Amino acid sequence: MTTIQQPSTKQDILHHLLKQGKCTVQELAERLQVSPQAVRRHLKDLETDGLIVHEVLQAGMGRPNYSYVLSQEGRDRFPDRYDDFAVSLLDTLAETVGADQMGSILRKQWERKAMEYRDHIGNGALKERVSKLVELRRAEGYMAEWHPIDANGAVIGSVQSESNPAARFILTEYNCAIAHIAESFPSVCGHELEMFAAALDCRVERTHWLVNGEHRCGYLIQPK
């Protein structure tokens, strides 16, 4: 995959698209002072990597022209410091209001999030609710997946789980969108368990934890 860590024409193209929004081959060639042919080669590589997309600019009856814009994946390649800002803000808040009040604030936040999840998840079968929760978590940046398991913890097939209304499930997240915050404020992970339980209206137990050095967070989900 193409990255933006090393200086290159591709990096220059990504930076220019970030600033300008969209550009044609000719505009990029003039800006970067390279040939249009070279620009096209770089654009082809970047589009293959999913970092940019093109839009057709039809001009009359001739050959269509194209403009190029960053994809969401392309934007995600640029570093941000949102986590640092969030941790700093929470540190300042904790110093200002005290530990007890801070705990109440974090709990209120997760209660609100649980209600938001609950509204999207609905009241279907537990399997359906778990599936919808995983979709929501993926959209928020968590690399999440779920599997039905039997009484011994072994993964079972979907057909078997449909015939077992009391089936249990494992929800696994390999990426944490708030990892830096969780390191500084591990209590948010405890609230997360409560949030999942409230959103799914079921019992939730932690099986794995990124904060403890494991490569994933895992949750056992089962009916009350």
From TrEMBL:
An example molecular function term from Gene Ontology annotations: DNA-binding transcription factor activity
Alphabetical keyword list: Transcription, Transcription regulation
InterPro entries the record matches: ArsR-like_HTH, DeoR_HTH, SUF_FeS_clus_asmb_SufR_cyano, WH-like_DNA-bd_sf, WH_DNA-bd_sf
Entry superkingdom: Bacteria
SUPFAM superfamilies: Winged helix' DNA-binding domain
Domain (HTH deoR-type) ranges: 6-61
UniProt keyword annotation of Transcription present: yes
Name of this protein: Iron-sulfur cluster biosynthesis transcriptional regulator SufR
